[in-house]
Write a structure and sequence with these properties.
There is one protein chain. The protein is of the alpha+beta class. Among the domains are: 128-234, Roll (Pdz3 Domain); 250-330 and 387-431 and 473-503, 2-enoyl-CoA Hydratase, Chain A, domain 1, CATH 3.90.226.10. The protein contains 14 helices and 22 strands. The chain has helices at residues 38-55, 65-78, 85-97, 113-119, 163-170, 181-187, 198-206, 236-240, 244-251, 283-297, 316-320, 408-418, 480-485, 489-501, and strands spanning 35-36, 83-84, 128-133, 136-142, 154-158, 161-162, 213-219, 227-232, 258-263, 266-270, 301-305, 328-331, 335-337, 350-351, 364-368, 371-374, 383-386, 396-401, 423-426, 437-445, 452-460, 474-475. The strands form five sheets. Strands 3, 4, 5, 6, 7 and 8 form a six-stranded antiparallel sheet that branches. Helix 12 links the parallel strand 18 (396-401) and strand 19. The chain is globular.
């Protein structure tokens, strides 16, 4: 559903590796706050409402018409005063999160330079990576000069604000599908897998910094006594420095995936991103080589690691084609859109990579209830068909998953589990079994604030399925002790499962 997106849409499918690496102005050169007139914001809202009501296929998937009317009404009231760009961006982000669509948001990567410079590039980043464990911030890597912020350390307050208060506020803008709060929390981790981390963006917008010094209250592992720590916030450039090599690998022709043998019987394939639209690297050739070697060596076990991978190209299709020895048909849910032709008065605000999205023509046929059946991407057999591609891998396959997996990787996890092609190990995925919106997009550019909002165009509506991600076959709970010890609990659980099956 999300294949063949162009290079400049790499973040639509929530791609977790950056395709470009560029430096901003100095952190202390903070742009003056832009103030937008209330009348101009009301015009922006009118454009947003018309576009979403006419074209968003999942607008009422998790909200009734009355509920969405109330959400639009609340946003109208919020924007009915002159306000800064920061305030407007937050108001729109809060509104979009209420739709409960993981692809409907004011995309960091699609904003104009003026918005990026004013809102996203201040010296306001906490100098460590962390994960949320049971609503607690647990440091996973320290970039400050204070050695007390070692892995496993709990951060209790940031600038005197309890982290639970911060989490509760940021959950209001965290994007995810339906009731999948596990994805929302995961989205707020800071792990060095993106050049704009959601926490880095929204934390200082909700809780503005008074200086570049961050006051923390911390508690080290196995200690009962909190301690006060003052650290220097990172600049945008400093946040990116540790991941520069990975960024350049994606941009250039270097291998992005990692393949190795953990022992003579078990191979490991790590795929941190499928967002390779701009990459010159021939990933299809690479995967063919991997699976040819696995077949030649008669490897007993393969571990595929997609835990850091939100989505991108349908690279998982290539993996599936080497796990089967006959045609596999996966039932395709009917695709729908909300319009046949975009309204002429919206066209000035709609960007996309494929102008044909503005007019589906005969590919969209009325189905009632305000929807059109879309046939443009349908397989003639009414299903997604996978064909074997070379010698089948005949060993046991394990896929490491997490709540990060919410687009193409969610769909991959769903297919391999439903068809018993692999054992899933890790945490519940992102995405939602009730269906996700995407496939084609407009980039809606609001005329006065200049804020961009992603607008997904295609949806499917599976029936009688839970409002949740895909559950792993082997659930692994992340722990503070694992982070402190640098232990890969999902990989260890997989190796334990392999050992138990070989007895």
């Amino acid at each position: 559903m999300f294949s063949n997106l162009p290079n400049w849409t790499r973040q639509l499918s929530l791609v977790p590796i950056i395709l470009f690496f560029c430096f901003s102005t100095l952190a202390n050169e903070t742009p003056a706050a832009t103030v937008i007139k209330a009348a101009d914001l009301q015009t922006d809202l009118a454009v947003l409402r018309k576009a979403y009501e006419e074209m968003h296929p999942g607008l009422y998937r998790y909200n009734t018409k009355a509920e969405m009317d109330a959400h639009f009404g609340a946003l109208k009231s919020e924007l009915n005063r002159d306000q800064t760009l920061r305030e407007a961006y937050l108001a729109i982000s809060l509104f979009l999160a209420k739709i409960k669509c993981g692809h409907s948001y004011a995309n960091f990567y699609n904003q104009p330079k003026s918005v990026v410079e004013e809102l996203f590039k201040g010296q306001t980043r906490v100098p460590f990576y962390f994960r949320w464990i049971e609503k607690r911030i647990i440091v996973s890597k320290n970039f400050s000069t204070d050695p007390r912020l070692k892995p496993g350390t709990e951060v209790l307050t940031i600038n005197d604000t309890p982290v639970k208060v911060i989490l509760d506020k940021l959950m209001q803008v965290a994007r995810a599908d339906g009731s999948n709060d596990g994805k929302r929390v995961n989205y707020l981790d800071v792990t060095g897998t993106d050049n704009y981390e959601a926490f880095d963006v929204f934390h200082p917008l909700f809780f503005p910094f008074k200086s570049t010094t961050i006051d923390l209250t911390i508690r080290q592992e196995k200690s009962l006594k909190p301690a006060k720590v003052a650290v220097t916030a990172l600049t945008y450039e400093e946040r990116l420095t540790p991941i520069k090599a990975g960024v350049e690998a994606v941009r250039d022709s270097e291998a992005v995936f990692e393949f190795k043998y953990l022992d003579e019987k078990t191979a490991y394939l790590r795929m941190p991103t499928w967002g390779l639209y701009n990459s010159k690297w021939d990933w299809k050739k690479y995967l063919k080589g991997v699976f040819d070697e696995l077949a030649l060596e008669k490897t007993a076990n393969l571990i595929v690691d997609i835990r850091e991978n939100e989505g991108g190209n349908d690279i998982g299709d290539e993996v599936i084609s080497r796990l089967i020895d006959k045609e596999l048909m996966v039932e395709a849910a009917q695709r729908f859109v909300r319009y046949r032709k975009a309204s002429a008065d919206l066209e000035p605000y709609l960007d996309t990579w494929d102008p044909s999205f503005k007019d589906w023509g005969s590919d969209a046929t009325e189905s009632g209830n305000g929807f059109y059946k879309l046939s443009r991407f349908d397989d003639e057999k009414g299903a997604k068909v996978f064909q074997p591609a070379g010698p089948r891998f005949e060993g046991k396959t394990f896929v490491l998953v997490s709540a990060t997996n919410s687009s193409a990787t969610f769909q991959f996890a769903q297919i391999v589990k439903q068809n018993k092609l692999a054992t899933l190990v890790g945490q519940t995925t992102g995405g939602n079994q009730r269906g996700i919106n995407g496939g084609a997009f407009f980039f809606l550019r609001l005329p006065n604030s200049k804020i961009e909002v992603d607008l997904p165009l295609i949806a499917a509506f599976p029936k009688d399925v839970p409002d949740a991600g895909v559950e792993p076959d082997i659930y692994v709970r992340q722990s503070i002790a694992d982070i402190a010890a640098g232990r890969d609990s999902e990989l260890e659980a997989t190796l334990a499962a392999i050992r138990s099956k070989s007895r």
